[in-house]
């Protein structure tokens, strides 16, 4: 599957629209159990990803799958890597340089990374469970490009991944258009609400919770 076929299945201008909305709004709008473990965080503040997923699985402490994936991943995709939550330095500056050359736009991994200063300096967005100087072996290849379970969320090739300072979500490809439209509607309603709050309105009134005042 080419980069064009991956991105063509997602809504037009999806990256800019997702950046404006953010992961929290999109999660609420989706109505889906699509949030990854909240311990998966950006390794530097302000990192952002909105891209089609390329999933793979690594054995604990083994990053061979990532090296194989680098020859298969379509340009414009984000690598989503399951490691069974084993924290080690699966990814560092060398793989970051290789990813940039391959057109990979970011990394989501439930394990660890290292060379954080280099990732920050290169502005490469990476989200991981931890940081570790400990390296990995290259000995096994569980799966590359096939659907995976990532911290309880199913990830298939082409699903929409959005990651920012609030967290990581994975929206099934078939739900992406609906979710973004619902997110934009939600954002418009929240903007109107915040304007009313700025003018002195109370959240209990705006959210229909006035019955709780009687319990003071």
Automatic annotation (TrEMBL):
Question: What are this entry's molecular-function GO terms?
Answer: metal ion binding; methyltransferase activity
Keyword field contains Metal-binding: yes
Q: At which positions is substrate bound?
A: 92-95, 114
InterPro entries named among the record's database cross-references: RraA/RraA-like (IPR005493), RraA/RraA-like_sf (IPR036704)
Which cofactors, by name? Mg(2+)
Q: Which CDD domains match?
A: RraA_family (cd16841)
The superkingdom of the source organism is Bacteria
Gene Ontology BP term (one): methylation
Q: Which Gene3D superfamilies match?
A: Ribonuclease E inhibitor RraA/RraA-like (3.50.30.40)
Q: Which residues bind Mg(2+)?
A: 115
Q: Does the keyword Ligase apply?
A: no
The portions of this protein that span the membrane are none
What keywords appear on the UniProt entry? Magnesium, Metal-binding, Methyltransferase, Transferase
PANTHER family per UniProt: 4-HYDROXY-4-METHYL-2-OXOGLUTARATE ALDOLASE 3-RELATED (PTHR33254), BLR3842 PROTEIN (PTHR33254:SF16)
NCBIfam families per the UniProt record, alphabetical: PRK09262.1
Its recorded name reads: Dimethylmenaquinone methyltransferase
Q: Which organism is it from?
A: Paraburkholderia fungorum
**Top-level taxonomy:** Bacteria, Pseudomonadati, Pseudomonadota, Betaproteobacteria, Burkholderiales
